Amino acid sequence: MTLRTNPLASALSDSMAAADTDLVLLDRESGAWRRHPWSEVLARSMNVAERIGDADASAVGVIGEPNVEFVAAIVGSFLAGRGVSVLPGPVRGAAADQWAHNTLARFAGAGVSHVLTHGSHLGHLRVADGSAAVHDVTTWAGPNRSAPLDASLPTGDVAILQGTAGSTGTPRTVRLSPDAVLANLTGLSARIGLERGHDVGCSWLPLYHDMGLSFLLTGALAGVETWQAPTSAFQASPFRWLNWLSDSRATITAAPNMAFGMIGKYARRVTDVDLSNVRFALNGGEPVDCELTALFATAMSRFGFSAGALAPSYGLAESTCAVTVPEPGDGLRTDEVAVGTDDGVSLRRHAVLGHAIPGMQVRISPREGDADVSGREVGEVEIRGSSMMSGYVGGASLDAQTWFATGDLGYLVDGALVVCGRAKELITVAGRNIFPAEIERVAAQVPGVREGAVVAVGTGEGSIRPGLVIAAEFRGRDEAGARSELVQQVASQCGVVPSDVVFVRPGSLPRTSSGKLRRLAVKHSLEAGTEPQPR
């Protein structure tokens, strides 16, 4: 079954029709896993595509928990030749009416004319002011279909309208073509060596995030059994991830660094799981903490986890998702370098993030004033290739052969990428450039400081707090003692003395919808002398 000339639609429909495997979804309410053959998901997707065509939608918005109709809405948009934008539901404590208003405004900014959703989101979005029509996806994605899809549906030049994280600035929407998305999924699948009948994927990553969406679509394209849990189920009980891996006998999984770090740190809570089938555990979406990632592998080895399965990787929305990914079996490779400090040099370990996937290229563009890393040519990471975006919504088009400056700083080791930090986040103290990630890692080791809730920034002379300032979520009684220890540890291990340490209550630091800390927002608050606030 080949649909028109849309390469992504054709590849997905052919694979899903031929697959004898299932998409397995966790029903949050009942706690049961429900199996849906990929062929059923395809039939539902075709029904959605037909309704999208009848509605003459310009682009489609999708929002809600990942049930089978939700997944069908995404694939159905591809089959209909329309771009799809997936956005998150409201965070806990958010006002539903304000969330609905903001969500419809974001959809409108991406050119979305029809929104598909279900559950409580449906009512909130329908009563909110917005230009998009809101539909119940469960009425569009029925399981039965006998007729072929109308071949007159447009092929489309946009497949995904992906929001960027906005962790270092204003979020933007990326336009990804069907060719670019297919190239990235194919390149990632080839690097991992996905094999139908052998591999099983398991993920709880949000489908509004590029890593979560790519994981799901890579499974669909390869026709492998794929288990998908709602992100909210992981958030409610993070250690259930290991139970899901055990129950599914998953060979492939993916998560951000914080998940590996949390489980490694509190591994004593883990009992009675079997991780011996996991051969590839992608770590991406945020900076990799080498010590905590290694701790995860060591702690989980008693449950059969192989250290060679660790796969620290690099990607971004502008390249669909994946850029560099290690070979299966490589495990956590690190590069130890000497970094200049006030007292001479200090050794640092960085994760090696693999080589570029097929179709992508990476180079380092040297820049003046980058951090002092002895023996390495540090510069801005630039990428190009077949997975690249067509451009930002409302912006100029980007040629796939044009080198794209990522804003990340890094270097190459035998052709493999190492990322040190973000160019915008580089801190200059007394004429020396410092990567904030190392300061944040040291600060997070102080008792009472929350892991993954530390931001180190450099503030200007005109700010209320000039110099190196560290903001951290703190849960403890002795703030003064913790503050003193934090300053001492950073001074000893990083060779620089913070000018101020600001402790805030847990949950106070602003984050993006995917959970990344909004560093520039923290910096602006600290420069103004105000306490950072969640958004």
Determine the fraction of residues in helical runs and give it as a percent range. 25-40%
Enumerate how many helices there are, as a single number: 15
Task: Give start-end ranges of low-pLDDT stretches.
Answer: none
CATH architectural grouping of the domain at 9-19 and 33-155: 3-Layer(aba) Sandwich
Task: Give a quick rundown of the structure.
The chain contains 15 helices and 29 strands. It has 535 residues and is α/β, with parallel strands linked by helices. The relative contact order is 0.09.
Protein architecture, described:
The chain has 15 helices and 29 strands. The protein is an alpha/beta fold. Among the domains are: 9-19 and 33-155, Rossmann fold; 338-420, Luciferase, Domain 3 (Luciferase, domain 3, Roll), CATH 2.30.38.10; 425-526, ANL, C-terminal domain (GMP Synthetase, Chain A, domain 3, 2-Layer Sandwich), CATH 3.30.300.30. The strands form 8 sheets. The protein has a 7-stranded mixed β-sheet with strand order 2-1-10-9-11-12-13, with helices on both faces. A hairpin with a 6-residue loop joins strand 1 (22-26) and strand 2 (33-37). The model has no long low-confidence stretch (mean pLDDT 90). Pfam families: AMP-binding (PF00501), AMP-binding_C (PF13193). InterPro entries: AMP-bd_C (IPR025110), AMP-bd_C_sf (IPR045851), AMP-binding_CS (IPR020845), AMP-dep_synth/lig_dom (IPR000873), ANL_N_sf (IPR042099). Residues 438-516 form the AMP-binding enzyme C-terminal domain.
Reconstruct the topology from this structure.
Elements: H1 7-18, E1 22-26, E2 33-37, H2 38-55, E3 59-62, H3 68-79, E4 83-86, H4 96-109, E5 114-117, H5 120-127, E6 133-136, H6 137-140, E7 160-163, E8 173-176, H7 178-192, E9 200-203, H8 210-222, E10 225-228, H9 231-236, H10 240-248, E11 252-255, H11 257-265, E12 280-283, H12 290-300, E13 310-312, E14 314-315, E15 322-325, E16 334-341, E17 344-351, E18 355-356, E19 360-366, E20 373-374, E21 379-385, E22 391-392, E23 404-413, E24 416-422, E25 427-429, E26 432-434, H13 436-443, E27 449-459, E28 467-474, H14 479-494, E29 500-504, H15 519-528
Parallel strand pairs: 1-10, 3-4, 3-5, 5-6, 9-10, 9-11, 11-12, 12-13, 28-29
Antiparallel strand pairs: 1-2, 7-8, 8-22, 14-15, 15-18, 16-17, 16-20, 19-21, 21-23, 23-24, 25-26, 27-28
Helix pairs in contact: 1-2, 1-7, 1-8, 2-3, 4-5, 7-8, 11-12, 13-14
Protein name: Long-chain-fatty-acid--ACP ligase
Family: Belongs to the ATP-dependent AMP-binding enzyme family.
GO molecular function: adenylyltransferase activity; ligase activity
